């Protein structure tokens, strides 16, 4: 698919994250104003709350759904309404749109640089998966040796655990280095101390846009996913190593999970669908994909020290996943677990086959034994205080891109 | 402490769960009426929503907090308001209260037998701990042998994992036997089938009544807990065995968690405070209890087959826990994890030292090798379709008890 041209010139630049083909959903404020729902186009944010209140663009003719600062009520309306809304907004923003309409849009929009961005939706619950084969193999090799790298269930189940929704924050929120129980292999007892192995995990988050009760098919799960964000699942490796047996990660993953501020809709990603890899071990029927349900999304991570310039420390692609978000969601419902609008599913760390494709510092520095060299000098095994981590993603079209905006966080020193 | 006498005779019976000393908070409806907040007293439910609307008893002079069918907004007001409200209601219900007041209460109350009970609060997030030493030892012995029964971190950390809030249901809700991936030790591959080892876990749930951001002390955590419920963490042991490594239980615990319908306040339990056991291994400072923060609560489980009478299959006590809910909550905040009003913390399965004190069928039948004999005939290793499981708890005072009401669930056959 080619670029859809907008009358807003900034949306037509080939390296713009937010062309007319994208129209991602976020929440913004300007100065001390109230938080409002917005849609990104070029270098502007369309005030969707304002358009609704003015009667110029309504998702639901009966009720306001954008009068609260999150997109959950809009999601409740379902896929047909999502699609209609997007089509109507596309028509208003497309080259050749009525000039009076253009004036309305300009009135009900702001320069992106003037706006602060907030959480685009209320997270109901947060689940983090472990569906990157290169990541699971790398971590398994470090922890259990190459022979036992992949757990026996891994090729059968999209392994996941429940995370902590209250810790999900929007890009730009500072992250305080956590304390926790830490015990070195040779220590007699644990101590309570700041994490010395604080790390990132590069992931894509899928947002559940329709509730379900009982097992749903992979096809239904795919339709229930509203959109996607780039996600950084901050992880304290030293806390994790001591706590995670036998019931899994807990406080090591509860400090913060940062998401990019714009929900890129599943509809905007249609041209970039791709298939999960061929299986050497067949999947059970309830996990079989009826079509391509993964996406070709280019990803990278930049690390910027407090004093210094950015080094891109990894480049990878969402297409590396072994399980799609649709498969993860179908599995999530397999026990009868009710899912709700606003549930967030982390893909698991997205590592590629090569060293420079790895999605965490644990892997990039091989457990701290092979520190990375930064472009501005110095090395990194794990994140240091003052470092800013920036995760970026986009799907590349023909002369345009569908971008996610930056997912960024600066690490502050541990308290006291 | 002795019984506080009420002018409502049914509240003064020594075996009544809901004397004036208790006053637990729930949500009820009568017929097709709206859901309302209520307080249990004797054989009646006081309509707290109605008392607030009539201006007869207000928790907050400025705003209605009981006009929605959950106690979360009330919890937001904080411990001083909780205490004031309870004192005012106690005065209205105490022997000798003004007769006009008594008339108001009768007008704004219903017979408990006429009411349906609903979820008493909105669960923000659900965390399940593993803090029963006998339980952890029993399960560890079955899975890893007696030598390695207790994981190395267990005496240092209140081990827990995040559960699934959307699956928490109120007593009386039927529970459908889950499907899941199951793989026997000798099977070449897993299959997708109904769980054949569906089980209960007898627990106490603590309800967080105040939000926090960053590490809080055990003393603060204790003050932040609004109240307690009896909790059944339904568990599919066969699904759990195959899925739980390396990231912990997931779908095995996502079918349902049943709670008793009445929130017994921390204040009502003050006379029953007791200490966690002496430690052979000292705890880190952030987990040290400044006083008795556990409770003496007698617990039992009855199993009633579809055709047959109830067998009490276990009797135990909350005082068996190694970690209190206050210690669990303090640990939960240690990484900086934000906690919110309505967070629910399961204690972990409460098993006592003897076989007949065990809090799960897995333990009672020792992994299915020693089936229980039921009073009405037949045996049980795990829960069968049509079985009703009833968990009960009360704190025993001098001539009265503070009871939780039944936490019950009937298991329906797997779908299709």
UniProtKB/TrEMBL annotation, chains A, B:
This is fumarylacetoacetase. It comes from the Bacteria. Keywords: Calcium, Hydrolase, Magnesium, Metal-binding, Phenylalanine catabolism, Tyrosine catabolism. InterPro entries: Fumarylacetoacetase (IPR005959), Fumarylacetoacetase-like_C (IPR011234), Fumarylacetoacetase_C_sf (IPR036663), Fumarylacetoacetase_N (IPR015377), Fumarylacetoacetase_N_sf (IPR036462). It holds the Pfam family FAA_hydrolase. Its EC number is 3.7.1.2. PANTHER family: FUMARYLACETOACETASE. GO terms for molecular function: hydrolase activity. Its cofactor is Ca(2+); Mg(2+). Residues 21-120 form the Fumarylacetoacetase N-terminal domain. Residues 127-411 form the Fumarylacetoacetase-like C-terminal domain. Pathway: Amino-acid degradation; L-phenylalanine degradation; acetoacetate and fumarate from L-phenylalanine: step 6/6.
